[in-house]
Design a protein that fits this description.
Elements (H helix, E strand, L loop, with lengths): L12 H6 L20 H19 L8 E2 L1 H8 L3 H13 L3 E4 L3 E4 L4 H25 L2 H19 L3 H18 L3 H21 L5 H16 L3 H17 L10 H5 L4
Antiparallel strand pairs: 1-3, 2-3
Helix pairs in contact: 2-4, 2-8, 3-4, 5-7, 5-8, 5-10, 6-7, 6-9, 7-8, 7-9, 9-10
Length: about 260
């Protein structure tokens, strides 16, 4: 039986194969990244997540701010489906609240949640510090010193967003020095939630004081003084929490109106 001969190509079929899969539209909507499971779509979703997270950490998005899907889609030139995916992820991370028929909002943590976040950080970071003291290298100490220089520069030039990010990142850098990316990601989530809590409950937070406490922690790490390093870290987190107004008192009218001696 003779071999089957390939069918001749139909006229114009080659042209169709080499031409774009869909015509280029002139409208803005056509330039948007379409939803789907592609790497490009996933990267864009993550970019939106990181942009919103950074804006929260740097205090550019306040608790309760409405996150309009269409507005975000216009900013990033993507479909609303990708924006919705990003907001869903942020909701799982407790940075965004999704309300039926109302949309997405930057979360407003309760006092109870604020206390729980700092309690978890105390437990997690104390254990992390004990591990780090035992294995930190001179090169890693030098890396921390470089981070402290950037913190100091941001504090001195009153760069509010920069210093907020760097002071928070200090704790994530400590976690990454252990080589445990899961721990670093967990701590990144907690630090982001702490920044959101600070936006709501912080009183007169002293960035300079936090920087000085970071310096003391690195000094203890360099000396491999585990007891001092853990104590300094715990004191630092307690000071941050203490600066939050988690127990607002109803002022006494007489004490409020009469001058204090």
């Amino acid at each position: 039986m003779p071999p089957t001969q390939p069918k001749p190509a139909r006229p114009g079929s080659a042209a169709r194969k080499t031409s774009p899969s869909r015509p280029r539209a002139s409208t803005q909507a056509a330039s948007r990244l379409e939803p789907g499971g592609s790497a490009a779509a996933q990267n864009m979703t993550q970019r939106i997540v990181e942009s919103i997270t950074t804006a929260i950490v740097e205090r550019r998005l306040m608790p309760g701010t409405k996150l309009a899907e269409q507005k975000i889609a216009d900013i990033f030139k993507v479909s609303r489906t990708l924006v919705r995916q990003a907001l869903n992820q942020l909701s799982r991370d407790r940075l965004v609240t999704l309300e039926p028929a109302r949309g997405a909002f930057v979360a407003q943590p309760s006092v109870a949640e604020a206390r729980q976040v700092f309690e978890v950080r105390q437990l997690l970071e104390a254990g992390m510090m004990r591990r780090l003291v035992a294995q930190i290298t001179p090169a890693q100490v030098a890396e921390l010193r470089e981070h402290l220089k950037r913190e100091q520069a941001a504090v001195q030039r009153t760069d509010v967003s920069g210093r907020t990010r760097l002071l928070a990142d200090f704790h994530v850098v400590l976690a990454r020095l252990l080589g445990n990316e899961v721990l670093a990601e967990m701590l990144q989530d907690l630090v982001s939630r702490s920044s959101l809590i600070s936006l709501m409950y912080q009183s007169a937070h002293s960035a300079e004081h936090s920087f000085e406490e970071h310096v003391a922690i690195v000094d203890a790490l360099e000396k491999r003084d585990a007891r001092a390093a853990v104590r300094l870290l715990e004191d630092h987190l307690q000071n941050v929490e203490r600066n939050l107004r988690l127990d607002p008192r109803v002022p006494d009218l007489e004490a409020a109106l009469l001058p204090q001696d």
